[in-house]
Amino acid sequence: MSTRAKKSPPRARDAEATRALILEAVGRLLVREGFGALGVNAVAREAGVDKVLIYRYFGGMDALLEAWGEDPNFWPTVAETLGEEPEQDAANLASGMLKRHIQALRKRPQTLEVLAWEATTRHPLTSILARIRETRSEELMAALPTGMFSPEVDLPALSAIIGAGLQHLLLRSRTVNVFSGIPISSPEGWQRLEATLDVLCERIFPVEPRTHRGAK
Fold first, then answer.
1. 194 and 100 in one domain?
2. Which of 46, 90, 151, 187 pairs as cysteine with 205 (C-beta 3.0–4.6 A)?
3. What is the DSSP string of 140-170?
């Protein structure tokens, strides 16, 4: 009878560390080479692990990218955008959410790099990240206080227009210093933009308090 000890299964801590290595490798590959470089073999080489572990922990490339996109480090969560104590009138709530969203993305340079790749690349995997962002947007809309925003304003459409403009400025700030006279690569430039968001939201939304969050 062999005295050699049986090989024990990997500990949960080791599995978590390996998953983290793989997810970090996805982000590095996306930033450096774009969606075309993503594949099980490439991610395994980047992470320094056997590709079998990618299938074991994630099931495949689609599920791996989905796990990476759902990580709060990629896209701001609903709680992060709403804030701990959301404002109690429509104008301040709207401008507060927009400003927190800007600040959250500015803290995620890797996300901005990936968004830049996504804007210029058509790839089957890009739809996975787009779906995750759409889901977060729907969750945010569902979490807003009932009755606070005027039904005359198409809030999703307004969010799309303003959000697209802000995202474009964020992406441009990676490569240019000034856009339309605004120094978008500096904190002072973004302070001007945020102040203008306050004015814009005051013009669009009523300023009087309405219902509290979650009220029917």
1. yes
2. 90
3. HHHHSPTT-S-TTS-HHHHHHHHHHHHHHHH
